[in-house]
C-alpha cells in the first residue's frame, strides 16, 4: 500500500530536487503527485510500498538535519557580511507587490474596526 513520505506544498524547488535525488540514489521506489490543474490536490512524494518506509524516513531525517545546519550557516554568513535580504530589498525588486499587499492589509484591518465601532455607537 502506498505511504506518504514527504509533502511538497511550500517546499523550495531545490529542497524537493535534493530529496528526489536522495531517494533515487538509495534505490527507494517512490512516485510523485502534483497539486493538479487547480492547485488543490496534495503535491507529495509517496513510497510505492511500506517496506522501505523506515529506511526512507531515516534518510529524510538525516537530510533535513543537514539541510537545517547548512541553511543556518549560509544565513549567518550572509548576515555577517551584510547581504541578508531586508524589506527595503523586497520593495526595490517589486514595489507594486508591496504596495498592493499593504493596501489589502490596511483594508482588512480598517473594515472590521469600522464595523465594530459602528455597532457600538
Characterize the structure shown.
By secondary structure, the chain is mostly helical. The protein folds into 2 domains: 84 residues, Alpha-Beta Plaits; 37 residues. Helices cover 61% and strands 11% of the residues. It has a 3-stranded antiparallel β-sheet, covered by helices on one side. The termini are far apart. The mean pLDDT is 91.
Let me know the largest β-sheet: 3 strands, antiparallel
Report, as a whole number of angstroms, the end-to-end distance: 61 Å
Strand content: 5-15%
Biggest β-sheet: strands ordered side by side in the sheet: 1-3-2
Short account of what is shown:
The chain has 121 residues and is mainly alpha-helical. It contains 4 helices and 3 strands.
Spell out the blueprint of helices and strands:
Blueprint: E1 3-7, H1 13-25, E2 30-33, E3 44-47, H2 53-80, H3 87-93, H4 95-120
Antiparallel strand pairs: 1-3, 2-3
Helix pairs in contact: 3-4
List descriptors.
single chain, mainly alpha, Alpha-Beta Plaits, 4 helices
